[in-house]
Amino acid sequence: MHTDLIINGQQIQGQALSFAVINPANESVIAEVASASAGQVNDAVRTALQAFKAWKNVSDDAVKQAFAKIAADIRAEKDEIAQLITLEQGKTIGMAQFEVDAGASWIDYLSGLDIPVETIQEPKGKTIKVYNRPLGVVASVTPWNWPFMIAVWHIFPALKTKNCVINKPSEYTPLSTIKLVEIINRHVPAGVCSIVLGKGEIGQALTEHADVAKVTFTGSTRTGQSILSHSVSSLKSVVLELGGNDAGIVLADADVERTAQGIFASAFLNAGQTCAALKRLYVHESVYEALTEKLVQIANAQVIGDGANPEVTFGPVQNKMQYDKVNALIADAVARGGQVLTASKALPDHGYFIAPALIANVQEGIALVDEEQFGPVLPIIKFNAVDEVLERSNNTQFGLGGSIWSTDLAKAEQIASQMETGTVWINSHSDLSPAAPFGGWKLSGLGYSFGLEGLLLFTHKQAVHISG
Ligand code: NAD
Predict the structure, then answer these.
(1) Residue with CA at minimum distance from ligand 1 atom 42
(2) Are 208 and 253 within one domain?
(3) 43 and 153 both lie in a single domain
(4) What's the DSSP call for residue 438?
(5) Would you say residue 368 lies in a domain?
(6) Pair 56, 129 in one domain
(7) Range of the domain at 314
(8) How far apart are CA 35 and CA 148, in angstroms?
(9) Catalytic amino acids?
(10) Are residues 181 and 204 in the same domain?
């Protein structure tokens, strides 16, 4: 297991204080990781700038070949990477394997994209060519819920567009990202992709560095706002993928069986620790009883435990802070009249385990409904009029995603047009595509990732006017 920084292609021990990485399934220390010093962050940026001089002119074919080799190595080392993800993050081994597979497929997809050059024909024989040029050094800061996948989402668009990139993973889950950057460094020149380790202050030192041209950040709204405020003096390009409080709206004509399966899979994906998970459920009164009954059955059937055990279907919450927060939200909801529909279960003595909880008899105005829980608990709210529920679902500072569950697709699309969110799903929730732009409205984000639009945010436009 690697625990070092990788700067300029070299594995180097951090020079500042170390921090412990904890296995959330049993609270044991997996690794002590030495944090980077401010000087080492500076070294990473300096050597990335140096590497950029050659990498910005690398051929498209060479990038494709490097991506193919990296994806092949990831697939060959899938078991080791998946075990690291489960060990540090807590998710089930099956879900960790999915994370690795999805990362490799994402790289394949990006590899196949072409960076367009637009040609504008002007009168009198003048031609203008509009190129998408690389920016320079990209800083990537990632969270602890999908550590490997989100690092892929940040690093590969940067490399594809011929930028150099430095990642700072979450201090809770650095190990699988170190492994990823180690693999990348087998196939790209020194300095093109580095990793620095540490807590928030290292993220801040990296993202506010004057020689960083762009920041791509996934995490909390509070940290995103701080990064944006620190990017003003150097006018950095900043893309922020932040928190959400996605509503799911189940209409009277929904297919109850399919809807229950889909809602559980989204709301409790990764024990609910997914930015675009379904976080507030509004159910039409005519299907409320049938749907909640089915959801409770699915929740009660989960096998809770250490995700490394292949029989387990539901792992722990990733860290103590989140464990305390989610338990406090449940206790507050219950104190205000919320009714826990799911059975209470005996949980392991150690580890941050919370059984999936469905909570009825709640409304807006309590924290569980108004705030992002980011954990395994879902408030369920009955409604009877679509107009009214649309207003309630939009009445939030967040705007990441939302979903409509109905067998009438035309009606669902009409309702989708009224939702104030960057993504709307119909009869699913949380599934993302590398081909479609993804970004939050309101306090859920700035800019977008994925698709050609997201990729081109890693570039500057350059218009070359050619007169004969
Ligand atoms: P966080 O903001 O606390 O931490 C994210 C990362 O930022 C970590 O690497 C952390 O060390 C770093 N960091 C902390 N302070 C910093 C600073 N001042 N400057 C620079 N970097 C700093 O978020 P988290 O708790 O790790 O993640 C959970 C949050 O992320 C949730 O709100 C969730 O909704 C959100 N999230 C959003 C998406 C999305 O795509 N929209 C995806 C996953 C998670």
Answers:
(1) 275
(2) no
(3) yes
(4) B
(5) yes
(6) yes
(7) 246-433
(8) 19
(9) 241
(10) yes
- Bridge partner list, 378: 358
Q: How many CB atoms lie within 10 A of CB 448?
A: 19
Which pair of structure tokens corresponds to residue 395? Answer: 């009445």
Does some domain include residue 439? Answer: no
Same domain, 371 and 448: no
* Ligand 1 pocket list (CB less than 6 A): 141-145, 168, 170-171, 199-200, 203-204, 207, 218-220, 223, 226-227, 241-244, 275, 372, 374, 400, 440, 445
Report CA dihedral (339, 342, 343, 348) to the nearest 10 degrees: -110
Query: How are beta strands 278-284 and 377-383 bridged, if at all?
Result: parallel
Ligand 1 atom, smallest distance to 143 CA: 26
Each residue's pLDDT tens digit in the chain (468 positions)? 899 999 999 999 999 999 999 999 999 999 999 999 999 999 999 999 999 999 999 999 999 999 999 999 999 999 999 999 999 999 999 999 999 999 999 999 999 999 999 999 999 999 999 999 999 999 999 999 999 999 999 999 999 999 999 999 999 999 999 999 999 999 999 999 999 999 999 999 999 999 999 999 999 999 999 999 999 999 999 999 999 999 999 999 999 999 999 999 999 999 999 999 999 999 999 999 999 999 999 999 999 999 999 999 999 999 999 999 999 999 999 999 999 999 999 999 999 999 999 999 999 999 999 999 999 999 999 999 999 999 999 999 999 999 999 999 999 999 999 999 999 999 999 999 999 999 999 999 999 999 999 999 999 999 999 998
Spell out the residues 6+ positions from residue 48 whose beta carbon is closer than 8 angstroms to its own. Answer: 137, 164, 165, 166, 191, 192, 194
In the numeric block, the tokens 């408030």 are attached to: 379
